[in-house]
Write a structure and sequence with these properties.
By secondary structure, this protein is of the alpha/beta class. The protein is built from 13 helices and 19 strands. It catalyses: (2E)-4-hydroxy-3-methylbut-2-enyl diphosphate + oxidized [flavodoxin] + H2O + 2 H(+) = 2-C-methyl-D-erythritol 2,4-cyclic diphosphate + reduced [flavodoxin].
Length: 414
């Protein structure tokens, strides 16, 4: 793992929250989570997607629980996952009617590992405290933690109005963006304080304050982290589709994680039609791994290509190697200790190829345009062999498999 500057370790919540068997905060590794987009009442489809997300590396999976049918489905989803050999904490996402659903479906309240509450729509007017209190009391009875998640798309308008009045009375009024940030933070912190008044301990509470702008997210979490020591969930809400969503999420979360802010993350990507939901899990893992905060799977360094690399051979090999190690990781993770830290390099010509290959555990420097049709392979910084011919891809993957078996300590029988 990369040696990080002290700033990347400074904050990390001092309070640890146990969700299932996983700890969030208190120095534990940053946890990756995702969310289904199936109809939760469709037990088969939801269990299938939860399993897909969990197998791709999502350590928590959140479900929409918005009606009686979805609440009743939760324990059956848990049972079906158990039959599939999948154990992953499920988080219930509640808006408007969570108090009623948890009261009416005690089996769902028991089966869920955590409840997500939005203080902006948990209730309105005089009902707000009653309905919020009902969810907290259910969580206490079932010994479940909660995430109190404020979102700027659903702020409590009474709180906003109060803060606007307070701001108007200031000698030097804040700008509108700062008032909005304060509303988010106060919504989360006031709700957490109320949960504690009701008997919930600080190690049962995770907070989030989500916005969809990069600079706004950085500003609000810096402020929130300075004002509390709760475990924090990070995510850029409604990040968007494709490269836009990936870049925006990485830009915002990368800054905060580098400053030691954030204990669990989600990359909220809009999936393209027909695309697997697992992409957001892979992006979250790659963000943490490229920052040196965690290791999930061997990473492949590959050059971007230039006029020296008019062949697509190195691109195809890099793609094949990355796909191979991701496919093999479920098996390798069980059999070998530390294999996720392995580094690979697939380079396209003589300029940087040998040098980059020597820096990786295993690297190959493919011939660029006009170069000799030979591909030297470097293992642990030393040239080990030269590959030639039509089977370079197959031969190199065989070298990787042999290296894994020889280098990483076996965990013994599964």
């Amino acid at each position: 793992m990369t040696n990080l500057p002290d700033s990347a370790h400074q904050r990390r919540a001092s309070i640890g929250v146990r969700v299932g068997q996983t700890v969030v905060g208190n120095g534990a590794p940053v946890v990756v989570q995702s969310m289904t987009n199936t109809d939760t009442a469709d037990i088969v489809a939801t269990a299938r997607q939860v399993a897909e997300l969990a197998r791709s590396g999502s350590e928590f999976v959140r479900l929409t629980v918005n009606n009686a049918e979805s609440a009743a489905a939760v324990p059956r989803i848990v049972d079906r996952l158990a039959m599939m050999g999948v154990q992953v904490p499920l988080i219930g996402d509640f808006h408007y009617n969570g108090h009623q659903l948890l009261a009416d479906e005690p089996a769902a309240a028991e089966a869920l590992a955590k409840y997500r509450i939005n203080p902006g729509n948990v209730g309105f007017g005089r009902k707000k405290d009653t309905q919020f209190s009902s969810i907290i009391e259910t969580a206490l009875r079932n010994r479940k933690p909660v995430r109190i998640g404020a979102n700027w798309g659903s702020l409590d308008q009474n709180m906003v109005a109060t803060l606007m009045d307070e701001n108007h009375a200031r000698e030097n009024p804040w700008d509108a963006a700062r008032v909005a940030r304060e509303a988010l933070i106060r919504s989360a912190l006031d709700s957490a304080a109320r949960a504690e008044e009701l008997g919930m301990s600080r190690d049962q509470i995770i907070l989030s304050c989500k916005v969809s702008g990069v600079q706004e997210l950085i500003a609000v979490y810096r402020d929130l982290a300075a004002r509390c020591d709760y475990a924090l969930h990070l995510g850029l809400t409604e990040a968007g589709m494709g490269s836009k969503g990936i870049v925006a999420s990485a830009a915002a979360l990368g800054v905060l994680l580098q400053e030691g802010i954030g204990d669990t993350i989600r990359i909220s990507l809009t999936p393209e039609p027909g695309e697997s939901r697992t992409r957001e899990v892979i992006v979250a893992q790659e963000l943490l791994q490229t920052m040196g905060l965690r290791a999930f799977t061997p990473m492949v360094t590959a050059c971007p290509g230039c006029g020296r690399t008019t062949s697509t051979l190195f691109q195809e090999l890099a793609q094949s190697v990355q796909a191979h190690v991701r496919e093999k990781m479920p098996e390798w993770r069980i059999k070998y200790d530390g294999v996720e830290n392995m580094t690979l390099a697939v380079m396209g010509c003589i300029v940087n190829g040998p040098g980059e290959s020597k820096h990786a555990d295993i690297g190959i420097s493919l011939p660029g345009t006009g170069e000799s049709p030979a591909a030297p392979v470097f293992i642990d910084g030393q040239k080990a062999m030269t590959l030639r011919g039509e089977t370079i891809a197959v031969d190199f993957i065989a070298v990787v498999e042999d290296y894994v078996a020889r280098t990483y300590r076996s965990r013994g029988p599964a």
